[in-house]
Amino acid sequence: MNRFWKCLICVVVLSCHSFASEPVPALEQAIEAYNAGFAATDRDQRLRSFRRAELLFDRVVNERELKNASLYVNLGNAALGAQRIGPAIVAFQRALAIDPSNRQARQNLEHARTLLPDWVPRPETSSSGLGSLAASLLGTTTRWSADDYFRIAALAFLVTAITLALALRIDRKGLRNLAGLLAVVWIASLCVAIWKTQQPAPNVAVVTLPDTIARAADSINSPSRLPEPLPSGTEVQVMEDRRDWLRVRLFDGRDAWLPASSVTRLVG
């Protein structure tokens, strides 16, 4: 058993403990089915067990209206075990929407993307050099949420106030300079937090129907826009909504029309 699948087991076990104080029958059944999938030697039985675990995790999330990143990670892991890449990517993305710093969700999302054909365009996961540094400082990456920046701003304000009080009391230039620097951090963090709250949520969707034909127009009779159908798990940006059809943009810049029933939208 490789390292990745061992990590998936650990996530399910940890999630079970987090709900130990309030047992949920469907959750217990989901974990039981998930473990049965790992134990199964027959491929068909393994897929059935993981698929059952996926359905049960999905029931727990929807019936109890839980916003729990670990549960979404477990849901994604079960879908991945059932070889359903599209629903797995949706679940990992929703886990990251709840907790952008969730390392397991991010690692499993990246792993799921590697299972797609090489020609499928993927979102850029990171930048490098000065661009990455600038993006981090300005808060344009998705790893830190607005709440994270509000917490940083609150902590910076507290430390600034304490440092400034000490500087005024003992009249040290170094402390005054440090208080000024901390004040800059406080103001910058607060500005980024406010900016993030004003940004519209990205209108991202994931193809969840296998072999979806991307068309040149919003008609079933329209010619195919791409040489090959889009596999389940392809991530797209929704540019226009015409009820039964969506105009989407792939992450290489190409536009196409997809049946609305073939994708799952992450927001909206």
From TrEMBL:
Presence of keyword Membrane: yes
PROSITE patterns reported in the protein's UniProt record: TPR (PS50005)
Keywords annotated in UniProt: Membrane, Signal, TPR repeat, Transmembrane, Transmembrane helix
Ranges for the TPR repeats: 69-102
Transmembrane segments: 149-168, 175-195
Signal peptide start and end residues: 1-20
Superkingdom assignment: Bacteria
The protein's name in its UniProt record: Tetratricopeptide repeat protein
Protein source organism: Rosistilla carotiformis
